[in-house]
TrEMBL record:
Protein name: Invertase inhibitor
Annotated InterPro entries: Invertase/methylesterase_inhib, Pectinesterase_inhib_dom, Pla_a_1-like
Domain of life: Eukaryota
GO cellular component terms given for this protein: extracellular region
Length: 194
């Protein structure tokens, strides 16, 4: 019996589709389970924020837990870069109150330093120096908190960076959770899903 090219093509198409769906659902489960545990352990990280953030990265669809760690560090880096750029734009305004300008300048320095720190965290994570990566990501998290706190030191001043600082804090918390899970072997962190 001879198989036609159409039958062979159909077989490969459906095999690939089933393989993709199987791996996609496995990575979805990993992300959902990781985010559920993370949000249960840290009330500062809502489940929806965690899943939305991780699913936004295309590579997350076929990542292991260890892979999600690097992905979450990269997401934090992108957030830091974007926030620093946003602060720079805000500082261009001539209408800024002196106090707000001072706070924004402080935040710019904090985010600039945090960018250098997150790059170190990426290297530490890649070389399995998880304790160093933990310290570095904790410093990144502190940068967001310190930036936000600067605006609260004067009554009546509203931070224009609250949402961005909050996102930086939450993304850093996700990284710290994944770091802990990888270090303690809380999940199968060595098996790639794709």
């Amino acid at each position: 019996m001879m198989l036609s090219n159409n039958n062979i093509a159909s077989f490969f198409f459906f095999s690939t589709l089933i393989f993709t769906l199987l791996h996609s659902s496995t990575s979805q489960t990993l992300i959902q389970d990781s985010c559920k545990t993370c949000s249960d352990k840290d009330p500062n990280v809502p489940y929806g924020f965690c899943t939305t953030s991780l699913f936004a990265a295309p590579a997350s669809r076929c990542a292991s837990l260890k892979g999600l760690g690097m992905i979450s560090i990269r997401l934090t880096r992108y957030n830091l870069t974007d926030t620093r750029c946003h602060i720079k734009q805000l500082l261009m305004s001539k209408k800024l109150d002196k106090y707000v300008r001072s706070c924004l300048e402080t935040c710019f320095e904090l985010y600039d330093d945090a960018l250098s720190t997150v790059k170190l965290a990426m290297k530490s994570y890649a070389t399995k120096k998880f304790d160093d990566a933990n310290i570095q990501m904790s410093a990144v998290m502190d940068s967001a908190t310190t930036c936000e706190d600067a605006f609260t030191e004067r009554e009546g001043v509203v931070s224009p960076l609250t949402a961005r600082n909050d996102a930086t804090f939450k993304l850093s918390a996700i990284v710290l959770y994944v770091l802990h899970a990888v270090q303690t072997g809380s999940a199968n962190s060595t098996t790639e899903l794709c």
